[in-house]
User: Fold this.
Amino acid sequence: MPASPITTVNSNTQTERLVLTLRARILKGEFSAGERLTELGLVSLLRASRTPIRIALERLANEGLLDPIPTGGFRVRSFSTIDICDAIEIRGVLEGTAARFAAERLERVEELGRVKRLLPRVILENPISPESFAQFLDLNRTFHREVWCLAKSPSLFRELEHACKIPFAAPEALVFSPADYEVSTAHVAAEQHRAIVEAIENREGSRAEALAREHSRIARRNLEAVFRSNKEGASRLPGAALVTH
Amino acid sequence: MPASPITTVNSNTQTERLVLTLRARILKGEFSAGERLTELGLVSLLRASRTPIRIALERLANEGLLDPIPTGGFRVRSFSTIDICDAIEIRGVLEGTAARFAAERLERVEELGRVKRLLPRVILENPISPESFAQFLDLNRTFHREVWCLAKSPSLFRELEHACKIPFAAPEALVFSPADYEVSTAHVAAEQHRAIVEAIENREGSRAEALAREHSRIARRNLEAVFRSNKEGASRLPGAALVTH
DNA sequence: AAAGAGCACATTGCATGCATTTTGCGCGAT
DNA sequence: ATCGCGCAAAATGCATGCAATGTGCTCTTT
Assistant:
């Protein structure tokens, strides 16, 4: 629906493969934070020539995963926990705006059919099986993007996608592993989802905004909890290697 | 202060020159909205080889001025007035967040020295001379960026810069030409600036947010006014050629 | 031992050739 | 007249060579 962001452009091209591979490897922690990524070094590592590598580096820098070096080249960016908390809060602010837009721009309640159908499914049973957990994450992601679409604003969609590129900022990153996750939190989240949809349906824009914004706090709480307690487990999460406290 | 965005990276490099030139020419309307920009076509036009041109196109696409074509290449993006209104509103939401952060994170009132010194100068005398108008725009821009900095959030700064890349979305684009501009609006804006700083100083985060958000509405009103009335004059503004109603 | 200069190497910026894919046009068939 | 096919031209994707600049190390000097 929106002007598609540059990350999902083509397919089957070297550049695209490199962006995916590099992003995954960076988030996995294969490069230490602050490390310079040289084009030639990546040539041998990624089996590609310098040109597509250069483009991939450009794109990842635009995503915010790399920092351009003033004299040329890029280094792996590091994120403080404050950076990440801010990124989550910004995402919350933007999702709040999306929810408000959705409420303000709703024409027919039938437009809510798809989100509503998602609602009863976004709950988690105890004990958590890996499959149900994966499905939970996926449903969560689907729900949030559905709200993005209900906002009917390509501009906002675009900014949301940009803001979610930061590690841990995306809504589906709000939970980490079944082991760390409190099932009760899932119920709180589900209730918030329900309330958001209700507010949209009632055209209560301000309420929808406040709810969506508060909803993003779950991600922040989870983040803090994980980084406080379960350090070893958390360090295996994608992106965790880039976090410097 | 923040992780510098990719647009201000280097200097004296072909790529950098091309980004500036191309952006200016696109905003000036030298290419029609929707037109495909081919690398070879630009080679002769910009006197550069394909490699830096390709990079420049990538960057402009990330800014949102170009749309990637799924099968490769880029075309000049067009903006509906709704797109632009949304972009302004998003900027308002983000600046509201910046003002709130500034209020919440203020440590010593002395930090406000610089914005306060800006305040009494952001007024416009009648009649408007071109110089005083240019100075007015510059001061306005400085004020807004100072608030961005007071938010003490690199993540937010980054998103603000990104959001302001859209034509007419930036705060300094809120006014167009001395002829169109109502001097009274400048006084309203100045009062809003004053109130925002006051709210920050009093640590009234919510008020600061609401004020900054509302403040962005001036840009929107101006936009609507200009596009309704003074079509010919408006069409000479940078970016106006990309607006399709 | 510390600091500075100089040099060799590493790295990026740019240019350009080749191969593949896309695109647009013209022609023919229905 | 319209639709579809096929071909030619054009455009991008990729690879690689060259030049200029930056980087880091060593060696010298104080």
User: Anything to note?
Assistant: Residues 123 and 187 of chain A are 6 Å apart (CA to CA).
